[in-house]
């Protein structure tokens, strides 16, 4: 049987999930990509469809300052901390979704004052609404809480510390649940890498004091040889039969340290005895959660899965037939810019083993003298990407690997004079990417591999996963690039 985990493969960190009627709704982080906060729907917790994005209108908020910042940790490891949209929570209350879902008729964001990360929302029985998140208090991290007017964002109470966790690094990703008269505060600790774990505490009042679960951590892969590692940032809910289930992030990590797909969304069976919850270790085939009608890879409504970088200019893109024809207007901004938005449109890489491809149509006179570069890229952030493209200024196909932080750069050039079209392809496994091209002048129709990238070069201590897309860069007056049959697996 095909494994069902991860239920949302590829770039899908920080999941939050709820059940409303016969449907489950799930949301993930997106950081510096637009549209932000994808919403997925399912009726069986196994087969999912992306139905929209909560931040889907240019101008709703700006991602221009969502640059990726290298942060050196205590162990010397450099964490690539992406800015932007972090760790959303989805909840349903009095007929309204927060984050709203199912149509694309989202409201503009309601802002509230909070100098922290990972805010979550809790609707209490008495009608009060609380926001809790991770904050720095007196030089150390803790989970704080405050009452809020959900319609205006006005704070209705002081912000107070609830719990600092069990002593692990970075207590974050909090969610509050109310059960049998107790408030349960579930958080993640240990950082989002090897030490990641889920812990929990409870109190008779929302403001505490909170007592720790004697069995913490209630979910973690640290210190194990499990294939799925870094598990944490969990959200708990009950399925249609009343069973407890958890969604969490994790990575598929091979024996040499590769986890190129980044943080993905996994499903695991939970149990809540009289006092405390716990979760099974995360497996590719979780016990008791087998698909009823077979596993189906996530699907998407038309065009909702396309991603852009930061504050994209919608006038640069024309999309027909779901990507069968994409017309790009190049800009002078390249993929390495930390704040501006290059001309780039992509989709998440969903498969460990698969391929993506596109065909570039030669612009003839419109490219003359404009130094047009256009092609296919596997992009994570401004520090790391691999790409294969046509450089009109030198009439050549170029392969590049850029890992600016490690000063690891490779390039290879092959002269090609195209008359009408040039096809580009990226094939991938867990171990490597193969970047190839084929021109219409090739009599054999065979592909020529121009570069190979070890996935270790795109694996790292980071927040994001690979997004594969087509891009166009040019100097001078506007040019036009037509891309045919863009596909991503």
TrEMBL record:
<feature type="domain" description="Beta-xylosidase C-terminal Concanavalin A-like">
    <location>
        <begin position="303"/>
        <end position="479"/>
    </location>
</feature>
<dbReference type="InterPro" id="IPR051795">
    <property type="entry name" value="Glycosyl_Hydrlase_43"/>
</dbReference>
<dbReference type="InterPro" id="IPR013320">
    <property type="entry name" value="ConA-like_dom_sf"/>
</dbReference>
<dbReference type="GO" id="GO:0005975">
    <property type="term" value="P:carbohydrate metabolic process"/>
</dbReference>
<protein>
    <recommendedName>
        <fullName>Beta-xylosidase C-terminal Concanavalin A-like domain-containing protein</fullName>
    </recommendedName>
</protein>
<dbReference type="InterPro" id="IPR023296">
    <property type="entry name" value="Glyco_hydro_beta-prop_sf"/>
</dbReference>
<feature type="site" description="Important for catalytic activity, responsible for pKa modulation of the active site Glu and correct orientation of both the proton donor and substrate">
    <location>
        <position position="118"/>
    </location>
</feature>
<keyword id="KW-0326">Glycosidase</keyword>
<feature type="active site" description="Proton acceptor">
    <location>
        <position position="14"/>
    </location>
</feature>
<feature type="active site" description="Proton donor">
    <location>
        <position position="172"/>
    </location>
</feature>
<keyword id="KW-0378">Hydrolase</keyword>
<dbReference type="Pfam" id="PF17851">
    <property type="entry name" value="GH43_C2"/>
</dbReference>
<dbReference type="GO" id="GO:0004553">
    <property type="term" value="F:hydrolase activity, hydrolyzing O-glycosyl compounds"/>
</dbReference>
<dbReference type="InterPro" id="IPR006710">
    <property type="entry name" value="Glyco_hydro_43"/>
</dbReference>
<comment type="similarity">
    <text>Belongs to the glycosyl hydrolase 43 family.</text>
</comment>
<dbReference type="InterPro" id="IPR041542">
    <property type="entry name" value="GH43_C2"/>
</dbReference>
<dbReference type="Pfam" id="PF04616">
    <property type="entry name" value="Glyco_hydro_43"/>
</dbReference>
């Amino acid at each position: 049987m095909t494994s069902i985990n991860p239920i949302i493969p590829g770039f899908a960190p920080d999941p939050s999930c709820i059940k409303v009627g016969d449907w489950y709704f799930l949301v993930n982080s997106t950081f510096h990509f637009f549209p932000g906060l994808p919403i997925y729907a399912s009726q069986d917790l196994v087969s999912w469809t992306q139905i929209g994005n909560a931040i889907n209108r240019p101008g709703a908020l700006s991602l221009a300052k969502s640059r990726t910042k290298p942060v050196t940790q205590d162990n010397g490891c450099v964490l690539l901390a992406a800015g932007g949209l972090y760790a959303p929570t989805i909840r349903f209350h009095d007929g309204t979704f927060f984050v709203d879902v199912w149509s694309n008729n989202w409201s503009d964001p309601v802002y509230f004052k909070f100098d922290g990360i990972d805010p979550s929302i809790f609707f209490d029985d008495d009608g009060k609404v609380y926001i809790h998140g991770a904050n720095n208090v007196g030089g150390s991290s803790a989970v704080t809480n405050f009452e809020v007017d959900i319609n205006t964002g006005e704070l209705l109470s002081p912000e107070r510390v609830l719990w600092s966790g069990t002593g692990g690094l970075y207590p974050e990703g909090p969610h509050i649940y109310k059960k049998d008269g107790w408030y349960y505060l579930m958080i993640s600790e240990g950082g989002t890498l090897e030490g990641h774990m889920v812990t929990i505490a409870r109190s008779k009042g929302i403001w505490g004091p909170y007592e720790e679960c004697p069995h913490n951590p209630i979910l973690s892969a640290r210190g194990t040889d499990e294939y799925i590692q870094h598990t944490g940032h969990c959200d708990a809910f009950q399925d249609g039969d009343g069973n407890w289930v958890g969604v969490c992030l994790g990575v598929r990590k091979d024996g040499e340290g590769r986890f190129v797909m980044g943080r993905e969304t996994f499903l695991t069976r939970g149990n809540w005895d009289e006092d405390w919850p716990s979760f099974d270790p995360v497996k590719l085939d979780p016990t008791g959660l087998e698909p009823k009608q077979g596993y189906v890879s996530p699907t998407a409504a038309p065009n909702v899965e396309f991603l852009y970088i930061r504050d994209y200019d919608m006038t640069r893109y024309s999309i027909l037939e779901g990507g069968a024809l994409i017309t790009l207007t190049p800009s002078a901004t390249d993929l390495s810019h930390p704040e501006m938005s290059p001309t780039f449109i992509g989709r998440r890489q969903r498969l460990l083993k698969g391929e993506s491809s596109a065909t570039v149509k030669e612009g003839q006179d419109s490219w003359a003298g404009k130094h047009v570069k256009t092609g296919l890229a596997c992009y994570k952030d401004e520090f790391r990407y691999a790409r294969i493209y046509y450089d009109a200024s030198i009439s050549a196909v170029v392969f590049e690997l850029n890992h600016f932080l490690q000063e690891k750069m490779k390039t290879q050039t092959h002269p090609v004079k195209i008359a009408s079209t040039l096809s580009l392809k990226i094939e991938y496994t867990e171990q490597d990417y193969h970047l190839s091209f084929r021109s219409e002048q090739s009599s054999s129709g065979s592909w020529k591999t121009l570069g190979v990238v070890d996935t270790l070069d795109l694996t790292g201590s980071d927040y994001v996963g690979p997004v594969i897309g087509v891009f166009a860069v040019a100097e001078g007056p506007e040019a036009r690039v037509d891309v045919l049959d863009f596909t991503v697996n």
